[in-house]
Amino acid sequence: MRVNINHSKLKKYIYTYNKFGFVRIPKVFDMIDINNIKNSLEEFIDSNKNKLKGRELNFASSSKKINSIHNLKKCKIVKQLKNNKEIIFIAEKFVGEKPKEFGAELFAKPKKIGMAAPVHQDNYYWNISKDNGITIRIALDKSTKKNGSLYYFSGSHKIGIQQHKASNVAGTSQTIKNIDILKFFKKKLSLLHPGDIVIHHSSVIHGSGHNKSNIRRMALNLRFIPKKSKINYYLKKNYEKDLKKK
Ligand SMILES: O=C(O)CCC(=O)C(=O)O
Q1: Of 4, 5, 164, 211, whose CB neighbour count within 10 A is largest?
Q2: Which domains does the chain have, with CATH numbers?
């Protein structure tokens, strides 16, 4: 697997990431590797979909089509990507210190019925003490406005974690409570080709649209946090309590 990131542009990418809370890096994987990743994910889904429990697997609305998977621990290609030296190198550069892996998710967003993700900040769910986590999002399909692309509120990672409330959407169960805050930030669509990646900060406010189009919008998220980061169990307990209540 080749991870093609031009190191001479790394400074510029990190500058953009620090300023906006996300950065797109084009053509990191070629189509052979993207197809390998897709095939391997499909094999994983075939043999594991009945073993995944509760919040680990979500379907699109009332269909039998998978919308998202939140436990890919046993997926071979995910392990391979997480142990890839170049990915770890990039993770360290963006986290800003030694990183550790923090799970992976698949957003499958099937055509016609893929669900929207309400606006949220990842660290509201993660509850890490050093809020410097990243998601490396690998586009497996094209991401356009029509198929409900992800969008970011540019620069919103600088305002800290906001209060959230129940969204009643499986897979993104919490959403920003005070949406008035959004007017202070520019909303930027994350338009991608398969093989591009986006790296986003654990505090950047983001969401996605419904996929009403004829084209699926699948992406694989690899998550990393600072090695020295701890889970804030007080916040986590509150979040879990909120989830149960709602
Ligand atoms: O792909 C989507 O629709 C949602 C993804 C998301 O919320 C995330 O990457 O944190």
Answers
A1: 211
A2: 7-245 (2.60.120.620)
